[in-house]
Amino acid sequence: MDDKLLRYTLRVDRLLFQKFRYIADSEGRSANKEIEQYLKRRVAEYEKENGKISLDE
Fold this sequence. Notes:
Layout: H1 14-26, H2 31-50
């Protein structure tokens, strides 16, 4: 597995996830890709408002 990819277990209400998966399917994406898109949008939104996040790695 690519070192850049992180596996993360998500616990979420079943009905909420089923609705989320419906949205992902309607957008032609897997639930995983839909989550990734959401995270990218949220980080970009945060950085636009608060400045670039700098991580020491």
